[in-house]
Design goal:
The structure holds two protein chains of two kinds. Chain A is an all-alpha fold. Chain A is built from 13 helices and two strands. The two termini of chain B are 45 Å apart. Classes of the chains: A mainly alpha, B mainly alpha.
């Protein structure tokens, strides 16, 4: 008995040692580049600091008070929410329709599938530049199209504060619809073949099959897609930074671009950290709430 | 049996959508590639839709002759080094997470999963500061740490799920044959994880190849910047020379388009690997 116990303990100890050795590298990276920066960010948010001088002035909660009444931050939060809502409302239905088309069309439509996928092959930065010029009043595609239909041309979508955000959202949709299309396509192919055959034999049209059979069994995928889109939209940065830098006049400002500007353009590192920390809190709360709501429904 | 070909409203709408989307998805690419072959003022004189008047290659030659190769080298270097770090580290981490029984397994794994949700912009300022402190600011090495760290959580998550599906018997028989944990890892688990690693490699390579925020903040001079920022530099130089910018964009998209042409399914699968429920 004694020996068995010692053997067992020895085994347990060797497992623990092995686990430690295997896990050291991953936690080294996570601690230094993810956990420590989050804590540090909150710490810096309590200071007034320009990022260069060695003396940070302890500011207490001053920065947070400023943030609470900062209309620009509020505006950028609202812009983030607009992107979240419109992204989900536009991307998912179109992606779903395209995926259904490709799924029922089979191999014949491979060419379509290839072209549809093209936007995903470009980085956000490249997409941003491409559309900056596509939208360009003088050289761009949109102005040319407007002229083609008898308009005056010189359409300046990004320069108009009322339209800019929607112009940018269109680009976001352009870039991400292929992603959700492929995502739903995979979900469609995962549905059992018999389900499709049975409904067609029973005389269902494609439309009926889609609405009554396929869509209801894809609830899970739609939910996950919505969560992915939500989380992605709240963190949005690259494309907007390239296309408008938050302008004109803050019309497309996002939490991330506002944070970047404070920290790295006006060198208010302390307040920038406050915006970053505020962003962290907002995103965490919204993500947790969404997961709670979605998971709660699943149980009911 | 012939299927009935009934034309319904739904079908017409879907067909229209299919065509419209073809134009929308392809149009900007057409604009990009055709413009890249045009002379600077050709867009204004001949219009946007016109095909290039001739095979005008000066834009591409201009890009090749510029510092473009430097960005390309930088990107390749950063992606290669970080990719090796990510793959080795996540392989090591996934093994105990999927195989060992120890008290802290669940909480530690939970920590990794939670790290998946952290927006990188929250960490930009501290990482920027850290990089300056260790004197890596504005070098290409500054990017390796953050790139590795931020792609690790999801990689560990994916690989742990993958390893959990490797049959236990293989490992047990190795143990009976006298393999310890480390030899089992090297000779059994690691080779069997190759398909998972391949998917991860594609996913992470694409992500890092396109990464912008860290590159923007942690580097400053052209000598240490990566491909996504090259476009930035070119825009500064050739602001109103649209065809030139389009040539740069075309060049930037080329590696991905080549990869797409070679292994369409693998690439798509890899790029979709990130779509996991957190």
């Amino acid at each position: 008995m004694q020996t068995i116990n010692t053997l067992y303990n020895q085994r347990k100890r060797s497992t623990l040692i092995a686990a430690t050795i295997f896990l050291i590298p991953v936690f080294f990276f996570i601690l230094i580049f993810i956990l420590y920066p989050i804590v540090n960010s909150f710490w810096l948010s309590l200071h007034d600091w320009n990022g260069i001088s060695s003396d940070k002035i302890f500011y207490g909660l001053e920065n947070w008070k400023t943030l609470a009444t900062d209309t620009v931050f509020y505006k950028s939060f609202v812009n983030n929410i607009i992107i979240v809502v419109l992204s989900i409302a536009i991307q998912l239905p179109i992606a779903m329709a395209l995926a259904f088309l490709l799924d029922t069309g089979g191999k014949k439509l491979n060419f379509l599938k290839m072209v549809y996928f093209l936007p995903m092959l470009m980085s956000s930065v490249a997409v941003g530049f491409l559309f900056k010029y596509t939208y360009d009043p003088q050289f761009g595609l949109i102005s040319a199209i407007s002229e083609l239909f008898g308009g005056e041309g010189m359409v300046d979508l990004l320069g108009n504060p009322k339209i800019a955000i929607y112009a940018v959202i269109s680009v976001i949709c352009w870039q991400y619809i292929p992603f959700y299309m492929v995502y739903f396509l995979a979900a469609f192919s995962a549905l059992p073949e018999e389900m499709y055959e049975a409904s067609i034999i029973d005389g269902a049209t494609y439309g009926q099959y889609f609405w009554k059979v396929a869509l209801p069994s894809m609830k899970g995928s739609v939910k996950s897609a919505a969560v992915l889109s939500l989380v992605g939209s709240l963190k949005y940065f690259d494309l907007i930074y390239v296309m408008t830098q938050g302008g004109p006049n803050g019309a497309t400002e996002l939490m991330a671009t506002y944070m970047y500007k404070n920290a790295f353009q006006t060198m208010k590192m302390g307040y920038g950290s406050t915006v970053a920390s505020g962003m962290f809190i907002v995103i965490t709360v919204i993500s947790l709430l969404t997961l709670r709501v979605l998971n709660g429904k699943e149980e009911a | 049996m012939k299927t009935r070909k009934k034309i319904t409203v739904g079908k017409v709408i879907v067909a229209i959508l299919a065509l419209v989307w073809l134009v929308i998805a392809g149009g900007p690419f057409y604009f990009m590639v055709t413009s890249a072959f045009k002379e600077q003022f050709e867009i204004l004189t001949a219009g946007v839709f016109a095909l290039p008047e001739g095979l005008y290659l000066d834009n591409f030659i201009g890009v090749i002759k510029s510092e473009f190769y430097r960005y390309l080298l930088n990107s390749t270097f950063v992606v290669a080094v970080s990719l090796v770090l990510i793959l080795v580290t996540s392989l090591c981490a996934a093994y105990p997470f999927s195989r060992f029984k120890f008290k802290l397994n669940k909480p530690l794994f939970g920590l990794v999963v939670a790290a998946m949700a952290v927006p990188i912009h929250v960490t930009l300022i501290p990482v920027f500061q850290l990089t300056q402190k260790i004197h890596l600011y504005d070098t290409i090495f500054a990017l390796i740490g953050p790139y590795t760290a931020f792609n690790l959580p999801i990689s560990v998550f994916i690989l742990t799920t993958f390893m959990a599906d490797i049959p236990k018997e293989l490992e047990e028989s190795a143990e009976i044959d006298g393999c310890g944990k480390y030899r089992t890892f090297i000779h059994v688990i690691a080779p069997l994880s190759k398909p998972g690693l391949a998917t991860l490699a594609i996913y992470n390579a694409v992500n890092m190849w396109n990464e912008f925020s860290f590159a923007l903040v942690l580097t400053q001079s052209a000598k240490s910047r990566t491909l996504p920022l090259s476009i930035w530099e070119f825009q500064g130089q050739y602001n109103s020379n649209v065809p030139m910018i389009m040539a740069v964009l075309t060049f930037c998209a080329l590696p991905m388009i080549a990869a797409f042409a070679v292994g369409q399914d693998k690439l798509i699968k890899g790029m979709m690997a990130g779509a996991v429920k957190g």
